[in-house]
Amino acid sequence: MVNQVEFNLRQKRRGVHLITDEVIQALPELPLTGILHLFIKHTSAALSINENADPSVREDMNRIFDHVVPENQYYFTHTLEGDDDMPAHAKATFVGSNITIPISRGRLNLGTWQGIYLCEFRNYGGSRRIVATIMG
Amino acid sequence: MVNQVEFNLRQKRRGVHLITDEVIQALPELPLTGILHLFIKHTSAALSINENADPSVREDMNRIFDHVVPENQYYFTHTLEGDDDMPAHAKATFVGSNITIPISRGRLNLGTWQGIYLCEFRNYGGSRRIVATIMG
Amino acid sequence: MVNQVEFNLRQKRRGVHLITDEVIQALPELPLTGILHLFIKHTSAALSINENADPSVREDMNRIFDHVVPENQYYFTHTLEGDDDMPAHAKATFVGSNITIPISRGRLNLGTWQGIYLCEFRNYGGSRRIVATIMG
Q: Helix or strand or coil: residue B76?
């Protein structure tokens, strides 16, 4: 069985956002066993799985991204689209444009402390489009 | 065909560990052709594929993780769970909670020098739970 | 339906390379709906999805990789295979050895600005082998 749906996330500010509920609401009925593949159709935002409870994790993670890939480096040549653009591309490649989550007993089989993250690396990234493919 | 199994890895010290054999022993029979999806149900450890021969690669990789995301940064606010906690979350997002490996002729189709890594980012992470989903 | 093909990419210099066309030419006919899983059978190169238009993004991204994981660090012990070797392993784990792309209406469902990247982290990496698994 293959099922696929494409949807937009609501626009978010630069930072790390918990989107588990927003994703689940966009999905059709899940099979008993299988996988959910999520793919973001953009090159300056990314998807990840991480801690779902304490908002300070998401704040600190965003700060870490900014320290690992700082803006305004002397060696950047791709600078026309803003200071946040080239670091956003690099962060997107470090974090990744796609995640796959197991489905068990008809539900996403996430750990107790896991949630789905949208990492928005642009200052004004706009709405982000996701393709969800369910295989089971 | 979808098959799924959930299992615990034996507890490991902080660092990078080769778990190819431990994973294979936990798997049911594989289809001739397909994919194996591995998902770790934790937010401070990660899965990767890398060099399977020289232990010094895994030692150095762990040191690189600690240099890319150092502990005790002045801008951390999520500090109550220990100095290793927030860096562990960030490293987990950089490395990723899931990997997918092709299955060919009934076996994992890894390159000659590839093995499956558990990246344990906590000092005392305990046993880690994995969901393996086989599609073929 | 499962279909799988294994192929070599043409040898490339160290850096980030757009390989969307080279990959598509190696693929069999795609199903209407499904996923394409790409896996690189090496531990010092990686696959990613990123910007497909401006070559300066790929140049800068390669420079960022070299700044995040610099060569010749005092704490490296895995040094016998060249200055580029250990950083290449670490970069490969940060970027990842596999990507999965949705297939919709018989084509790869990439965003307008997305392409497939080979990140070649070795100075002389040789030809790289890819396993493409199509599920639909």
A: coil
Pairwise CA distance, residues A113 & A52, whole Å: 5
Closest chain C C-alpha to A124 CA, distance in angstroms: 17
How close does chain C come to B99, measured CA to CA in Å? 7
pLDDT by residue (tens digit) across B16-42? 999 999 999 999 999 999 999 999 999
pLDDT in tens, A7-55: 999 999 999 999 999 999 999 999 999 999 999 999 999 999 999 999 9
pLDDT in tens, B124-136: 999 999 999 999 9
Provide the phi-psi class of A130: left if phi over 0, else alpha when psi is between -120 and 50, else beta: beta
Residues 6+ apart with CB under 8 A from B86: A57, A60, A61, A64, B76, B78, B79
pLDDT of residue C25: 98
Which spans in B76-132 are helix H?
A: 85-95
Where in chain B are the domains?
2-135
Any C CB within 8 A of A94 CB = yes
pLDDT of residue A133: 98
The CATH classification of domain A2-135, taken from the options 2.60.120.460, 3.10.150.10, 1.10.10.10, 1.20.1600.10 = 2.60.120.460
Cα separation of C133 and B13, whole Å? 35
Closest residue, chain A, to C57 (C-alpha): A78
Is C41 touching B (CB cutoff 8 A)? Answer: yes
Look up residue C13 and give its amino acid.
R
> Is the complex ipTM higher than 0.95?
yes
* Cross-chain residue pair A43–C51, CB shorter than 8 Å: yes
Q: Does C73 touch chain B (CB under 8 A)?
A: yes
Neighbours of C (≥3 Cβ pairs closer than 8 A)?
Answer: A, B
Separation of alpha carbons A95 and C44, rounded Å: 18
